[in-house]
Amino acid sequence: MLEQAQIKAGQIFVLGLSSSEVNGGRIGKASSAEIGEVIVGTIYKTLKAKGIYLAVQGCEHLNRALLVEEELAEKKDYDVVSVIPQLHAGGSGQVAAYKLFDRPVEIEHVTAFAGLDIGDTAIGMHVKHVQIPIRPVLKELGGAHVTALKSRPKLIGGERAKYSV
């Protein structure tokens, strides 16, 4: 997925995760801290090695806010909000990231370059325009539907314009 997205060091990757869906249940009804730890831990390790920032989207109870490293929030001048994610208010992904990150903070919005949605958590609001679907190798994880997005620059200028994409 990272290869298809052509994401680079310093860019943001958003993760939406429903451990309930992975667990075979309905989103928000069968949360699993263990599933969150395995999935977020694996993704975090992979992204960190490539210098890519991970933003973990929370559930609707936190208005889909994102947990990020304080370094990213400072670098991008994001407004930090005050909340500590819980299993049923933020979700298993955020709880896992809160434990993993060096200095975790919660922010309300990012404009990520690409993202992965495990369990139909609606990450599109956090991936910049124009969004392009990626066909992940794994289309399901447990009981969860898996989708992915990348972005590209907008094509402007109409029929007279020439594009490099």
Automatic annotation (TrEMBL):
Highest taxon above the source species: Bacteria
InterPro entries, sorted: Antibiotic_NAT-like, DUF436
A matching Pfam family: DUF436
Signal peptide feature range: none
Family affiliation: Belongs to the UPF0340 family.
Protein name as catalogued: UPF0340 protein RT41_GL001270
